[in-house]
Amino acid sequence: MAHLILGSNEVAEEIVQDAFVALYPRFAAVQSPEAYLHRAVVNGCRAWIRRKQTGIRLARPEVAATARAPELDETWAALDRLTPGLRTAVVLRFYGDLPLAEIAELTGTRLGTVKSQLHRALAELKDVLAP
């Protein structure tokens, strides 16, 4: 999920690792570890995107992407054209298979906002991926 939101395996691995490290000391107290990890990963991705957009230098430079299957490159290129908010909504809904209410909770937005983000994202993807 983090890789699809960010487009970088290396950064996604760091964010997921940070989420597990944060969960470990409070694992017994957390009612839903899966929900905690989802939220921590989404928040980590959002924070990374904000840092990147504001120009804050990251601790580690990004590594060039490896070659993928042509359909993955085409799909990723289309996803990469979306704004971070739209891309996050699409990834959580269609790759993470999360319900709309849970996406709204994870991203800290209203349910109606999630619906409109998905509608706009799908319209943009349709334009880009249509033959």
Quick overview:
The protein is an all-alpha fold. Helix content is 71%, strand content 0%.
Describe this structure in words.
The chain is mainly α and 131 residues long. The protein has one domain: Winged helix-like DNA-binding domain superfamily/Winged helix DNA-binding domain (Arc Repressor Mutant, subunit A, Orthogonal Bundle). It has seven helices and no strands. It has helices at residues 2-6, 9-23, 33-54, 70-81, 84-95, 100-107, 111-129. Helix 5 crosses helix 7. The longest helix is centred in the N-terminal third of the chain and has 22 residues, at 33-54. It is globular and about 50 Å long. The two termini are 27 Å apart.
CATH level 4 superfamily: Winged helix-like DNA-binding domain superfamily/Winged helix DNA-binding domain
Total individual domains? 1
Work out the strand percent. under 5%
Global outline: globular
Largest sheet: none
Q: Could you give the order of the helices and strands?
A: HHHHHHH
Q: In CATH terms, what is the architecture?
A: Orthogonal Bundle
What is the CATH topology classification name? Arc Repressor Mutant, subunit A
Q: How much helix is in the residues?
A: over 70%
Termini separation comes to: 27 Å
The secondary structure category is mainly alpha
The whole-angstrom Rg is 15 Å
CATH class group: Mainly Alpha
Number-wise, the strands total 0
Mean pLDDT over the full residue set: 83
How many helices? The count is 7
Unreliable residue stretches: none
